[in-house]
Each structure stands twice: as structure tokens, then as C-alpha cells.
Amino acid sequence: MPMKFQNIPCRGRLLVNARWFNSLRQSSALVLFAACLAIPAALAPGQSPTGTTTTTPQTAPQRSPQPAATPSAPATPASQQPPTQTAPTNSAPQAPQPGTPATQPAIGVQQTPGQNVGVAPGIAPAELPADPPPIAPNFEAPARPLPAADRVGVDVANQTPITLNEAIVFALQNNNDIDSSRIDVKIAEFNLAGARGVYDPVVSSQSYFESRTTPTSSTIGGGVNGFVRQKEVTNLTSLNGNSPIGGGSYQLDFSASRLSTSNQNATLNPQFPSSLVATYTQPLWRGLRFDNNRRLIEIAKKNLSLTDAQFRQRAIDVISQVQQSYWDLAFALRNLQVQIDAVKQARLQVESNQRLVAQGVLAPIDIVAANTQVTTFEQNVYTAQEAVQRAENTLKTLILPDRTASLWASPLTPVTPVSLEPPHVPLELALSNAMKTRPELAQLQTNSEINRIDTRYFRELTKPQVDLVGTYTSAGLAGTPTPRATTATGSTVPPNLIGGLNQSLTNLLQRDYPTYNIGVRVSLPLRNRTAEANLGSSLALGNRIVNQRAQTEQIIEAEVRNASQSLRSAEARLAAAAATRSSSELQYESEQRQFRAGTSTIFLVLQRQTELLAARGRELQAQTDLNKAIADFQHATGNTLEANHVAVRSDGPARTAEVATENVTGLAGSFAPGIPAKTVSEPTGVTRDE
Question: How far apart are CA 154 and CA 168, in angstroms?
């Protein structure tokens, strides 16, 4: 009897071959007990409640298709059922037995293309999202020649060599951010001069003509026709200001007039009255030791120190950015050279493969593999060239004054050798230097001093206002005697009052008619809550500055530690990368020799070539990372200016960052026209000793 192979689905997703049932039926001595595990697992799409799929079952090759299984019963014939036990059907879910869990883990659950694989037992698999719309069904680009390898916007034939010190010089000279910080310092200097100007005396003058007509009803008033008319020309001049000592203030008023009147009783007409009034106010309590004027001057001084620290901070940041950009450009150019060398090497491999194929040693497909390597490396060349352009533009942005500089069209060539020896500074010394030289701490110290000035002033405002006020007045008078002043016995006007304006001023200066006034003025606001609130706010701000300083010190601690670790790690990575590159070169040369001897394949040769390219790139990156780590370490310890021989000068009309002349050579030392200095009205940028 021929054997039939038929897969019978049973509960638990187990497949039982019908071959075993045919053997049982022939021998009639063996009994097969099919035990299937009951698994109440979630059904996947396309399955029936019995656990069978609704798709057409697979059959053996060159066999007629079997009838599909129905959802109500297995597809096993009745004659093939075991004689002693009936297999349970899947027409209905089986009730759980007492003492057993309601659900059991799924075993052998089949997946459909719309489900994920490897889900946790007992959890329904997630449905995958529908296919996206066919936006570009044909993703294969047509074959076309490569574009020109020229760089955009620069003439590679006109290379401009530049050292790191030269780049720093031009950044300090032309960088817009440093210019902005320098302008901030200049503004702070003007603010200090303006604060001191509160003690400048103020002179004011007023001249006017006045005509007054006053009615009078008695002959004593001297009126004619019931009124008195006066005409007066007056000049008022005053001088007032504040005293830098003791918080006092002064005022000096001078007036001189020419008065003519129609009063019949006047003995001088016209007459020239004059007066000089001097007033001085001296605080006795509030404002005696500290007032708002002195507060503003002290704050302006501290703000000048603050902007100095900010200028140093900005100079450090710009120098660090120049260092980072400089080494990025050096890495990009060297990486471009590595990629070009890789393409040349790959093309040589193609030529070698072509010769071997012509000799019948290699199959033609090996030429295709080598060409694929060439095109892959050519893509790397264009990517590396773009990185060069970006790194160069970043550096030019830092060192050029504006977009019209001619150096934008010239490529830069870094010529400073790569530093392979990092500074070995103990961590304790590095932390100590950072706490002394970091501009952030200097700025916080200045903010703390400004807060103490405010606190002192607001504490003064809580005191009562008690002022000593003194006034001295000297009067002068002169004029022409009227007929009424002349009697039979002579003139009734004293001789010193007869004359014009000069005589009046003489009487004024002789102080023959003085007036004195001295008193105490007290001002006491009830409760004074405004001053108390300002004092409390200032004290709270002082506490916040203390917290900010502690937080900044923690940040500096972390930065110094990270920079020290980066130095050590970069040094180790460079050593390891150099060893890896050397090993990769030996492996590539060995693989080439084996390939020429016929004991290797082109695949292994290309693989070794790719590994060598990656090893060279990692070595270049490790060298660049080491130089950038050195710059980060200088920035973290606040040693950037000293390490690059830059000094901030404040003895001139504007702040300047000066670089030692012996460290500026070549392009920067000669101030080539490719990098012009900014034209400003005051000295800015780099000051060099001739």
C-alpha cells in the first residue's frame, strides 16, 4: 500500500504526519495516543477559531492538492483516527479544568507577515503599519557622469597658508563678537564718566523784561491817577551742584535788575537792586556716609570691571573657537587626502584585476567588485570635500572682518604642525588655576560687590532724613535820586546808594546788608516699608549670588576634570589608532601578496583596503581630537590667553588684545591684504610692537 504524506493540524499547532497513521493501520498492534496541549492563544489574521489557517495548505511536490480543512473539525479521515481515544475537536473552546490557570503560554504560535515576531507569551502581536504610498517606486537613479571636483567659490590654485597664531591674531582683530565686547567696555567707561558727572556744577541764567501796573488807592502808595507802573529788566544767574564729600548740595543765586517806577514816594529812580544768595544743605544722618550719587559711581566702576571680565571671557571663547575650527579644517584637508589616496589605490586594483582577467586568472565579476569599491571611495571624496568647505567657511567667519574680504575666494592651508604631546598638569594644580583665572568667577565676584553696594545704600535709606540747611544773602542797591530825595538840608539818600549798576554790585560785594539763616530739616516716613523691602531684596539677591558661585565652581570642577580625562583619553586613542593603522597596512600588504599568489580572493583584498581606509581616518580623527582636547583644557583652566601669548590691555582709549610679536609671523606678521583689518575710529584688535 503506498504511503501518503499528509499534515494533519491538531490543537496546540502540532503537525502530525499521516505516515504514522498508515503504519498503525497496517500493524493493528500499536496504538498512537496523540496528546495535544490546549493553548488559548490569540489567533493571527487568517486563522480560524480551531487554530487552522484559512489559506491553502502546502502539499508535497507533484502531489494533487488536498481538500482544505474545515473550521469545525480536523481534516483527518475517520479511518485514520486512533482506535482507543478520540482526539478532541476545536469546534468550541475547552473549559479550564479546576486547579489549572485560565490561560497558558502560547507555544509555536505562527506569525503572519502583518505581525511582529517574538512577542511575550499571552500578548497579542502588534499589527505592522500599512505600506506607504508609492511616491517614488523607482528608487534607482540613472547613470550619469560625476560632476567636476572643483570647490565652489574658491580658487584652489591660490592657496593661502596660515598658522594657528595668525588665525588667532586676525580673530582678535576682526571678529565681530570681540568688537561688540570691546564696545561694551567703552560704553561702561562712558557710564562711569557719566556717573562722576553728577558732581559737575550746573550754571543757569535767565534774563527778562517785566512791566507791572499796580492800582493804589492812597497817596502813601505814591500812585498817580490811582496806579503805580514799574518797568524792570532782570538777569538771574544760578550755580548749583552736589558735593563729593559728605553728600551735601549747594546752590548760589545772583540777580541784578534795573527798575524804573512812577511811584511819587520813591527816592531812587531808576534803581539797580542786586542780591547774592548762597545755600548749602548737609545731611546729618541719612546720606552722610553713602548716598545715591556715590552708589552710582561705585556701581559704574564695578560694571567696568565686569565688562573687562566679559571682554576676557569673549576673547577666550573666540580663541577656543578658532582653535577648534583650525584643527577641524586641518583634519578635513588631511581626510580629503586620505580619501583621494584610497580612490587612487582602488583604481590601481581595478587595473590589476583587468590584467588578471585578461590572463584568465580571475573571473570578470572581480572587475565589477573592484569598480564598486572605486565608486564607493569616490563618494567619500565628495563628502570629504564638502567637509573641507564647511570647516574653512567656519574659520573664515571667525577671522575675516566682513563678507567683502578678498580671502573668501582663497582656500586656507593650515601649516601649524599637529601637537602630539598634551600638557601633563596635575589635577589639583589645574583646579587651583581654574578657580583663580576663570572669568566667570570674576564676573560673579563683581556682581557680589555690586550687591554689597546696593545693600549699603538701601540700609542708609532706612535711616531718618536729617539735614542741616544754611543760607547767606548779601544785598546791593544803587540808583539816581529823585527830587523827593532832595530837601533844604540836603539829600536824604546815603552817598553809597547813589550810582548805577556798578555801585550796586560794589555794595553787594562789601556785604553791608547781609542776611543769615541756619536750621535743621527732618524728614521721617512712617514705617518706611519701601526702604526695608529694598534692603531685604538686596540681601536675598546676595544669597542667590552665593549659590550661583557655588554652582559655577561645581561646573568648573566638572569641566576641568572632564578636560583632563579627555586629554588622557585622546592621547590613548591616538596611540591605539596609530597602532591599528600600522597593523591595517601590514594586513593589507599581506592580503595583496596572498592574492597575487592565488591564496586569497578579491573580496578579502577589498575588505582589507576598506579597513585600512577606516584606520587612517580614525588616526587623523584621534590627532585632531588631541589638539581640540588641548584647546578645551586651556579653556577649562582659564589659561587660553596665556597659552597663546595674548594679553588684554586697558591703558589705551579702548580695550585691546595684544599678541606677542615673536609669535606672529608670516601672513599675520606682514598683515597681508587678503585679511584686512577693520577700519575703526579707535584702536581695536591686535596691538603689535614695532
Answer: 22
